[in-house]
Amino acid sequence: xxxxxxxxxxxxxxxxxxxxxxxxxxxxxxxxxxxxxxxxxxxxxxxxxxxxxxxxxxxxxxxxxxxxxxxxxxxxxxxxxxxxxxxxxxxxxxxxxxxxxxxxxxxxxxxxxxxxxxxxxxxxxxxxxxxxxxxxxxxxxxxxxxxxxxxxxxxxxxxxxxxxxxxxxxxxxxxxxxxxxxxxxxxxxxxxxxxxxxxxxxxxxxxxxxxxxxxxxxxxxxxxxxxxxxxxxxxxxxxxxxxxxxxxxxxxxxxxxxxxxxxxxxxxxxxxxxxxx
Length: 277
Fold this sequence. Notes:
It is a single chain. By secondary structure, the protein is α+β, with helices and mostly antiparallel strands. It contains seven helices and twelve strands. The chain has three domains: 12-82, Multidrug-efflux Transporter Regulator, Chain: A, Domain 2; 85-128, no CATH class; 134-276, Multidrug-efflux Transporter 1 Regulator Bmrr, Chain A (Alpha-Beta Barrel), CATH 3.20.80. The strands form two sheets. Strands 4, 5, 6, 7, 8, 9, 10, 11 and 12 form a nine-stranded antiparallel beta sheet that branches. A three-stranded antiparallel beta sheet has the order 1-3-2. The protein starts with 11 loop residues before the first strand and ends with a strand.
């Protein structure tokens, strides 16, 4: 009876061959090896040459596709190591939502560019504002609010916390939600912002205060929350032209927004500046 030694020969690709087929530079392949993302199937102890299995080309295809989908290298590494298809699908949905938001933003930019082109062709100033500025003596309002240093990205979380506090204290909104900007300057990453909502007069307790801005000028912005800067600019120009000065922090009233189940293009926001002569 004979025992046979069965030798399986696996065809290996040099790093150069693997680079040519996958269209990924050898420098990148060495980096992927270094960080553990895609290690060679075999490394010669004598020469240090890297060799890859043909099956690893599929791994590289996946890496390249996930990079196109916006995955970071650590995220890709976790996907390759996990093998959890359910978690992988959840990650893919998250990236899909990210691309949808980016696409919507790009569509908004393209629409604005088209409108600007039409204005330029009519020899109009594309930065000319169409906001109608009015003045109002605003009566005092009772508001339930939370004030903190936050970034613009924290707005949703801040309003969720606000709504949770309203429910806990059994307070019902009696008017639109609002934001007050207390800092003199504005920093997207860290600004003193107060989020709140009007509640019924006579409401008392923690986080309840009076908002009494007095004389204000205001303008109405119709559209998404992406950029209120043109509206703020129109208000500042009006204040300067009319000889007023700012007497308090500006604030925004969200007259119609996402909680009203309307499209962002239909959002209605009133922006106020307290003023005095």
